[in-house]
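Key result, reporting period 2: structure in, sequence out.
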Protein backbone atom coordinates (compact mmCIF):
# COMPACT_ATOMS: atom_id res chain seq x y z
CA UNK A 1 0.00 0.00 0.00
CA UNK A 2 1.37 3.40 -0.94
CA UNK A 3 0.89 5.70 2.03
CA UNK A 4 0.12 9.38 1.68
CA UNK A 5 2.55 10.62 4.29
CA UNK A 6 1.47 14.25 3.94
CA UNK A 7 -1.97 13.34 5.27
CA UNK A 8 -0.54 10.99 7.89
CA UNK A 9 1.96 13.62 9.02
CA UNK A 10 -0.81 16.20 9.56
CA UNK A 11 -2.94 13.63 11.35
CA UNK A 12 -0.11 12.55 13.67
CA UNK A 13 0.91 16.13 14.50
CA UNK A 14 -2.70 17.06 15.25
CA UNK A 15 -3.09 14.00 17.47
CA UNK A 16 0.14 14.81 19.32
CA UNK A 17 -0.82 18.46 19.83
CA UNK A 18 -4.13 17.39 21.40
CA UNK A 19 -2.40 14.84 23.63
CA UNK A 20 -0.46 15.26 26.85
CA UNK A 21 2.83 14.34 25.12
CA UNK A 22 5.68 16.80 24.76
CA UNK A 23 6.76 16.80 21.10
CA UNK A 24 10.49 16.88 20.39
CA UNK A 25 11.06 17.86 16.76
CA UNK A 26 13.86 15.50 15.83
CA UNK A 27 16.09 15.36 12.77
CA UNK A 28 15.05 12.66 10.30
CA UNK A 29 17.57 9.85 10.37
CA UNK A 30 18.87 11.04 13.72
CA UNK A 31 18.30 7.58 15.19
CA UNK A 32 20.54 5.84 12.66
CA UNK A 33 23.26 3.84 14.31
CA UNK A 34 21.46 3.78 17.65
CA UNK A 35 20.04 0.57 19.06
CA UNK A 36 16.31 0.81 18.41
CA UNK A 37 13.34 -1.48 18.75
CA UNK A 38 11.09 -1.06 15.72
CA UNK A 39 7.30 -1.12 15.87
CA UNK A 40 5.78 -3.66 13.45
CA UNK A 41 4.02 -1.24 11.10
CA UNK A 42 3.16 -4.06 8.70
CA UNK A 43 0.92 -5.91 11.15
CA UNK A 44 0.00 -2.90 13.30
CA UNK A 45 0.11 0.31 11.22
CA UNK A 46 -1.97 2.50 13.57
CA UNK A 47 0.33 5.10 15.12
CA UNK A 48 -2.22 5.65 17.92
CA UNK A 49 -1.50 2.17 19.28
CA UNK A 50 2.22 3.02 19.31
CA UNK A 51 1.50 6.24 21.22
CA UNK A 52 -0.82 4.38 23.61
CA UNK A 53 2.09 2.07 24.38
CA UNK A 54 4.28 5.08 25.18
CA UNK A 55 1.56 6.52 27.39
CA UNK A 56 1.06 3.23 29.27
CA UNK A 57 4.83 2.99 29.76
CA UNK A 58 4.67 6.40 31.43
CA UNK A 59 6.54 8.33 28.76
CA UNK A 60 5.81 12.01 28.28
CA UNK A 61 8.05 12.97 25.34
CA UNK A 62 7.72 11.76 21.76
CA UNK A 63 10.38 12.38 19.15
CA UNK A 64 8.86 13.33 15.79
CA UNK A 65 10.75 13.57 12.51
CA UNK A 66 9.82 13.73 8.86
CA UNK A 67 11.83 13.96 5.68
CA UNK A 68 11.13 14.95 2.10
CA UNK A 69 12.74 13.40 -0.96
CA UNK A 70 15.41 15.78 -2.25
CA UNK A 71 16.34 16.19 -5.89
CA UNK A 72 20.03 15.79 -5.11
CA UNK A 73 19.31 12.22 -3.90
CA UNK A 74 18.01 11.35 -7.37
CA UNK A 75 20.89 13.17 -9.04
CA UNK A 76 23.38 11.16 -6.98
CA UNK A 77 21.61 7.89 -7.81
CA UNK A 78 21.66 8.71 -11.53
CA UNK A 79 25.35 9.65 -11.40
CA UNK A 80 26.19 6.40 -9.65
CA UNK A 81 24.07 4.44 -12.12
CA UNK A 82 26.19 5.89 -14.94
CA UNK A 83 29.30 4.42 -13.26
CA UNK A 84 27.91 0.88 -13.28
CA UNK A 85 28.09 -1.91 -15.83
CA UNK A 86 24.51 -3.14 -15.64
CA UNK A 87 23.03 -4.82 -18.70
CA UNK A 88 20.86 -2.65 -20.92
CA UNK A 89 17.70 -4.24 -19.47
CA UNK A 90 18.85 -3.82 -15.84
CA UNK A 91 19.83 -0.20 -16.48
CA UNK A 92 16.45 0.53 -18.10
CA UNK A 93 14.65 -1.00 -15.11
CA UNK A 94 16.67 1.08 -12.64
CA UNK A 95 16.22 4.26 -14.68
CA UNK A 96 12.46 3.64 -14.69
CA UNK A 97 12.40 3.18 -10.94
CA UNK A 98 14.37 6.40 -10.45
CA UNK A 99 11.97 8.20 -12.81
CA UNK A 100 9.03 7.07 -10.66
CA UNK A 101 10.72 8.58 -7.61
CA UNK A 102 11.29 11.82 -9.56
CA UNK A 103 7.53 12.46 -9.42
CA UNK A 104 7.78 12.60 -5.62
CA UNK A 105 10.51 15.26 -5.26
CA UNK A 106 9.59 17.36 -2.24
CA UNK A 107 7.07 14.81 -0.96
CA UNK A 108 7.35 13.38 2.53
CA UNK A 109 9.16 10.06 2.22
CA UNK A 110 9.59 9.13 5.87
CA UNK A 111 7.94 9.73 9.24
CA UNK A 112 9.43 8.68 12.56
CA UNK A 113 7.93 8.63 16.02
CA UNK A 114 10.06 7.46 18.93
CA UNK A 115 10.20 7.36 22.69
CA UNK A 116 12.83 6.25 25.14
CA UNK A 117 12.05 3.77 27.90
CA UNK A 118 14.45 1.92 30.20
CA UNK A 119 17.50 2.77 28.06
CA UNK A 120 15.83 1.61 24.82
CA UNK A 121 14.46 3.64 21.93
CA UNK A 122 11.14 2.45 20.56
CA UNK A 123 10.47 3.62 17.00
CA UNK A 124 7.48 3.81 14.67
CA UNK A 125 8.54 4.51 11.09
CA UNK A 126 6.36 4.88 8.01
CA UNK A 127 7.58 5.03 4.42
CA UNK A 128 5.53 4.80 1.23
CA UNK A 129 6.09 1.99 -1.27
CA UNK A 130 7.53 4.37 -3.86
CA UNK A 131 10.28 5.39 -1.43
CA UNK A 132 11.03 1.78 -0.47
CA UNK A 133 11.40 1.03 -4.21
CA UNK A 134 13.72 4.04 -4.58
CA UNK A 135 15.87 2.84 -1.66
CA UNK A 136 15.97 -0.69 -3.12
CA UNK A 137 17.11 0.72 -6.48
CA UNK A 138 19.80 2.78 -4.72
CA UNK A 139 20.98 -0.34 -2.88
CA UNK A 140 21.18 -2.28 -6.17
CA UNK A 141 23.23 0.51 -7.73
CA UNK A 142 25.52 0.87 -4.71
CA UNK A 143 26.11 -2.87 -4.52
CA UNK A 144 27.98 -2.91 -7.83
CA UNK A 145 30.00 0.27 -7.38
CA UNK A 146 33.70 -0.13 -6.65
CA UNK A 147 34.58 0.79 -3.05
CA UNK A 148 36.21 4.22 -2.95
CA UNK A 149 39.26 4.09 -0.65
CA UNK A 150 38.54 7.64 0.54
CA UNK A 151 35.22 6.44 1.98
CA UNK A 152 36.74 3.50 3.82
CA UNK A 153 34.63 0.80 5.34
CA UNK A 154 32.16 3.29 6.78
CA UNK A 155 31.42 5.22 3.56
CA UNK A 156 27.92 6.49 3.15
CA UNK A 157 27.11 5.51 -0.39
CA UNK A 158 23.60 6.41 -1.47
CA UNK A 159 21.17 7.59 1.15
CA UNK A 160 24.09 8.28 3.48
CA UNK A 161 22.96 8.91 7.01
CA UNK A 162 19.25 8.70 6.36
CA UNK A 163 17.78 5.25 6.84
CA UNK A 164 18.60 1.62 6.86
CA UNK A 165 16.21 -0.88 5.30
CA UNK A 166 15.40 -2.57 8.62
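The corresponding designed sequence is given below.
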Amino acid sequence: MDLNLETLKSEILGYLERSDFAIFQSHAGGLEGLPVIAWDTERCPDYRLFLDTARKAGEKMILFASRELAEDELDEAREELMETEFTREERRDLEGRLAKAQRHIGATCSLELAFGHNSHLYVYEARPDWYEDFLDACDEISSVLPLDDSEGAGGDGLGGGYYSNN
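The first strand starts at residue 22 and ends at 25. The CA atoms of residues 2 and 79 lie 27 Å apart. This case is discussed further under Risks and Mitigation.
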